[in-house]
Specification:
The protein is α+β, with helices and mostly antiparallel strands. Helix content is 50%, strand content 15%.
């Protein structure tokens, strides 16, 4: 179920308008806009996860007793 990027509430697909509409604030997106937001959101998350893992590995490596 899509989540509103504006307020965080659940969005419902309106077939008459061919758009996702937020139940709380009324924000609306087309399917294409939602797909674009979703893919950019996950792309950013993947990069953050890679950076976090690299930092954790570096901290572990530097803390090892040799």
């Amino acid at each position: 179920m899509p989540v509103c990027p504006d307020c965080g509430s659940i969005m419902k697909y309106d077939h008459r308008r061919s758009m996702y509409v937020c139940k709380n604030c009324g924000f609306s997106l087309t399917r294409e806009e939602w797909s674009r937001i979703k893919s950019s959101k996950f792309k950013g998350r993947d990069e953050e996860e890679k950076e976090d893992k690299a930092r954790e590995y570096l901290a572990w490596w530097l803390s090892r007793k040799k």
